[in-house]
Specification:
Layout: E1 2-3, H1 13-23, H2 32-49, E2 52-53, H3 55-64, H4 76-90, H5 94-105, H6 109-115, H7 122-133, H8 137-150, H9 168-173, H10 177-183, H11 195-220
Helix pairs in contact: 1-4, 2-3, 2-7, 3-5, 3-7, 5-7, 7-11, 8-10
Length: about 220
């Protein structure tokens, strides 16, 4: 990795500690283990694609992106203030803080799908690709089932086809765990912005397609 901002980087430890505090008791698939993987996947993208970025912005956005998500926290405004305070404590500049918030406010698939939100900076594209990679593959299958169970979504209803969502509330309700593969997950590879993200997404989707073949065979038995 090459770091455009190698001098006087802020301290990442307060950011990691805050993310762990907020996310360690999440049981929807958005826990601290998830953001740890997103941080590692972000680093893998940087290394594999040989990208020059603000490493603190990438890692902070990776660790903090779910700490202000309404799936996880009850009071989004309070969560945003706490994140702002955390980044000040870490020694981040105002420019870095604004950049991190820009990324995490525009990261979600639902905002892109329903509002046309986009992440235009390289740092943001890296974190978004990493976040989406963690929704795919074996981990993605487990997280989808975990989230669906926590929200009482049916596992599979053969008579209910996947749907297109018109608004955020409908998207949050979802349909079934299996439908989520088609409503979101299989759409992700074509949305990847980095070379590594695109290749890894296709590899993970291939695994998921094989899983679904076995799932349907067992279901229909």
């Amino acid at each position: 990795m090459t770091d455009r901002y190698s001098q006087d980087q802020p301290n990442l430890e307060p950011v990691i500690d805050y993310a762990k505090l907020i996310l360690s008791k999440d049981y929807t698939g958005h826990g601290f283990d998830h953001v740890q993987r997103v941080a590692k996947l972000s680093q893998a993208i940087i290394d594999q694609d040989q990208l020059s970025v603000d490493d603190f912005v990438v890692q902070s956005a990776a660790y903090l992106h779910d700490t202000i998500d309404d799936k996880v926290v009850a009071d989004v405004n309070q969560a945003q203030q706490e994140v702002n305070d955390c980044l000040h404590t870490a020694g981040a500049s105002r420019e870095q803080i604004d950049h991190i918030f820009l990324i995490i406010h525009h990261l979600s698939f639902s905002k892109e799908l329903l509002e046309g939100a986009d992440v235009t900076t390289l740092e943001g594209q890296i974190v978004r690709d990493a976040d989406r990679l963690d929704a795919l593959g074996a981990i993605g299958i487990m997280r989808t089932s975990y989230f669906g169970g926590s929200h009482q979504h049916p596992l599979h209803l053969p008579s209910l086809p996947p749907k297109d969502f018109a608004n955020h509330a409908d998207y949050r309700k979802g349909t079934t765990v299996i439908n989520h593969f088609y409503e979101k997950l299989f759409l992700l590879p074509e949305k990847m912005r980095t070379d590594y993200g695109r290749k890894e997404a296709l590899r993970r989707v291939s695994f998921m397609e094989e899983f679904l073949k076995e799932f349907y065979a067992e279901w229909d038995l």
